[in-house]
């Protein structure tokens, strides 16, 4: 099984830019402004661990629109395309319009079928900030239609306990060039607990032979736990533990997937515990990983 393709959007949060040492091999060829076949967007800015390595998720809004949030809020989208620089999912595309905010001079980015000014991106090669020897494809924000060239896409805390939302900051935004206003939550004071997460209401009743190991990423080119798997909507930690009896590890992912194995395949690494935030499909009081994150238990 292949992991979905991903593209990194190296992001800005308010005024701070990521500082990345370039140590990878950047091809001299340019990339096409068309990328088809489906990809997801990983947000990267190691300077802000709370947003680093989260996906840009879509959430259904009114009128066929979808709003954009950082994972785990919203639905994972690994079916995005870039069409002459426009970011598309099926018949909707990314636009920048509405909900202008005086406090930071930014405007909302969301996805719609309608004719609002589009966001235009340019794919470029960059070095993965998590592994500076690794080349990756990044989406550089080029401009908003009908606006001066430039500007940036940022994320900031969303209203209504919905994690983080995506905003457009115009070029030379005087608000962003100065210190962020003190009445905005600063990135460092933004606690990860403001992200909606499922809180277990009762301790899991999995057999005591299993102990919780932590939250783990998928492997690079296969599943982290690749010996056996099933998925359905009655997933609980108990049913996955039963299914994986005899293996050293079991892990639940994306609320409804169960994986078993005796080793972690290459590339699977420990992730922040807060990443594993999806309630299990069959028991809302238990946590079953997230997108690309496994809640892992060990029998040894
Ligand atoms: C991108 O795709 C569009 C059609 O969706 C096509 O008109 C355009 O020529 C393509 N551009 C490149 C650079 O391939
Ligand atoms: C970093 O990337 C290089 C090049 O893709 C790869 O060979 C290496 O295994 C990676 N290191 C880690 C720790 O993932
Ligand atoms: C917003 O940014 C633009 C620069 O792109 C600037 O002309 C304008 O004055 C700013 N508005 C506020 C309220 O800061
Ligand atoms: C879910 O899968 C497990 C393991 O294969 C099976 O025992 C259970 O009956 C399934 N439940 C549903 C509702 O399909």
Oligomer: single chain
N- and C-termini, Cα separation: 27 Å
Portion in helices: under 10%
Please state the structural category: mainly beta
Could you give a short account of the major beta sheet? Answer: 7 strands, antiparallel, barrel
Q: Got a strand count?
A: 20
Number of helices: 2
Strand content: 35-45%
Tell me the strand order in the biggest sheet. Answer: 2-3-4-8-7-6-5
> Could you tell me the mean pLDDT?
80
What Rg do the Cα atoms give?
A: 20 Å
Q: Tally the structural domains.
A: 2
Shape: globular
What hetero molecules are in the model?
A: 2-acetamido-2-deoxy-beta-D-glucopyranose
Protein name: WSC domain-containing protein
InterPro entries: DUF7909 (IPR057231), Sialate-O-sulfotransferase (IPR051589), WSC_carb-bd (IPR002889)
Keywords: Repeat, Signal
Pfam families: DUF7909 (PF25486), WSC (PF01822)
Task: Give a short synopsis of this structure.
The chain has 300 residues and is mainly beta. The protein has helices spanning 174-177, 237-243; strands spanning 6-10, 35-44, 54-60, 66-70, 80-83, 86-89, 92-96, 107-112, 119-128, 131-144, 152-157, 164-169, 211-217, 228-231, 249-253, 257-261, 270-271, 279-280, 283-287, 293-298.
């Amino acid at each position: 099984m292949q992991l979905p393709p991903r593209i990194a959007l190296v992001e800005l949060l308010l005024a701070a830019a990521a500082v990345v040492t370039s140590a990878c091999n950047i091809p001299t060829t340019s990339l096409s402004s068309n990328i088809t076949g489906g990809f997801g967007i990983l947000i990267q800015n190691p300077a802000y661990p709370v947003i680093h390595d989260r996906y840009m998720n879509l959430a259904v809004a009114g009128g066929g629109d979808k709003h954009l949030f950082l994972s785990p809020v919203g639905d994972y989208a690994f079916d995005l395309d870039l069409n002459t620089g426009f970011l598309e999912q099926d018949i909707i595309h990314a636009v920048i319009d509405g909900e202008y905010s005086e406090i930071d001079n930014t405007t909302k980015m969301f996805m719609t079928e309608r004719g609002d000014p589009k966001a235009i991106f340019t794919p470029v090669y960059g070095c993965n900030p998590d592994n500076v020897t690794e080349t990756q494809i990044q989406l550089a924000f080029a401009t908003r239609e009908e606006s001066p060239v430039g500007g940036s896409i940022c994320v900031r805390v969303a209203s209504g306990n919905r994690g983080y939302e995506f905003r457009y900051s115009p070029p030379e935004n005087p608000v962003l060039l100065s210190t962020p206003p003190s009445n905005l939550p600063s990135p460092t004071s933004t606690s990860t607990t403001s992200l909606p997460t499922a809180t277990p209401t009762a301790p899991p009743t999995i057999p005591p032979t299993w102990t919780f190991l932590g939250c783990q990423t998928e492997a690079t080119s296969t599943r982290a736990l690749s010996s056996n798997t099933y998925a359905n909507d009655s997933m609980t930690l108990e049913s996955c533990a039963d299914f994986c009896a005899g293996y050293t590890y079991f892990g639940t992912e994306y609320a409804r997937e169960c994986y078993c194995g005796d080793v972690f395949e290459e590339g699977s690494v420990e992730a922040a515990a807060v990443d594993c935030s999806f309630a299990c499909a069959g028991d809302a009081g238990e946590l079953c990983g997230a997108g690309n994150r496994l809640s892992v238990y060990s029998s040894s």
